[in-house]
Amino acid sequence: MSSEAGRDHVHRFLDPFSRGGRCRPEGSDQDGRRLDGRIMAPEAGYYFADDIYLEWDAFMKTILVPQAEKHKVFAKQQEGARKDVERAFGVLQSRFTIVRQPVQLWKRKSVGRIMLACVILHNMIVEDEKEEATIQTDLNESPGASFALPPEVNQGTSSPMVAVLHTASLRLKHIRGQVVAFCANAKGSRFIQRAVDGATTEEIIMVYKEIMPYVRTLAVDMFGNHAVQKILNHGQRSYKRIFIRHLMGDVLGLSLHMYGCRVIQKAFEVAEHDQKLVMAMELDRKVLRCVRDQYANYVIQKCIECVPSKHIQFIFRSLYGVGKAKMLSTHPYGCHVVQKVLAYCNPEIHHAMTAEIIESVQMLSADRFGNYVVQHLLEHGGAARRSTMVEKFATQIVAMSYHKYASNVIEKCLTFGCHHDRQLITSEIIAAGGGQHLDDHFMDMMIDPYASSVIQKMVVTAEERQVRVLVGVARSNAAKLMRYTHGRRVIAAIERFLAARGTHAMPCPGYRC
To answer: What is the pTM for the complete model shown?
Structure first.
């Protein structure tokens, strides 16, 4: 592609964001060579910037407190132009993941080519959406059709809308013909969310009829998605069915979208059984992709909650297999889905997944995300599995208590374990002190950011004779413990223990809880 064609694409991309064509402050010549008395050198490159940047000649900053008229004009034009570029760059970031990633290790030429490619793709998408908006479609013939928003929605907050929103007695019937525009507006969306609660049946029907052609577009709109979710809580069953039918065919695409995933979750909540099954089946063969996605994983979780397990065996089968439970448990989004599956799946899959998790329980306990799966299993997995995991922790309990993530697992064992489980844990922690070094051992744990939480849980769950050992160590080292934040928290836990039993409090002068 020639440089002329590339510049043309960039100008076309920036035009919608700039007010009045090219952003050139008053006082500069036609080529923008002079600006506020400074000579611009496009070859060297001047950059609009704000005050967080260094005082370099290449950075052209605004004037914070302009006094003279020319300074005011310059500040206004500079800030406006900078805002145009920021908005344009924000559009690219929201559309292309690669623009959101760090670029420190990339070559400058590669960065330029990537940005130009994104600009060209953006222009192509915009042109395609404009063509799509002109298509006349019968909703009954093609309920899955996708539309761009009507032109008036993209014109900002028009003065008539502002005037209408300031009307105290405003109701939905007063915005007939403008519902879509209101949904896509920040204040308009909030108004609709409030108004539908007290709307009449006729008003709700009017709202459904107006938004029906633009369902998919509103679902991915920053403000429209909130209005759509609220609207789905109201209305007759027949209109909800038609609404959800418009979403079908693009359930996967919407699930992968930042805002669309919220609408799909709401659709799973309000849809009837047959439509839930159809939406769920659209996720088949893409389950693992959705589980690993930061937005679609919530849709998978909602699907597991709302659809009977016998109809979504394809989801469970996708997550069931050698190494899959372990792999997904260490994933930032997969760990949440694994917990949801364990709560809703059939006994056969539950047994297989828990067996794999227990096999790797020590590794998962120390994992940033896997520890949450282990905690879930400790709380809901039953006494037998809980005891099996505690036995696997034997000889490692003290080391785990000092670990940022594994310490949470030990606390869960103390909270939900049976008497035998708690006895095994507390006995191993006390035995690790080795008699004469008991004070040093417990002091290290009491002032540690993570082990101190285990000690506090021991105070609540251990046998009284074992707690007395902790009380003795804390009393003889109270002055030292008071110098540490975590030590003070241990003292507070012991104070509560003693107060509950009517025993004299620990002598800690100047202590504050």
So the answer is: 0.67
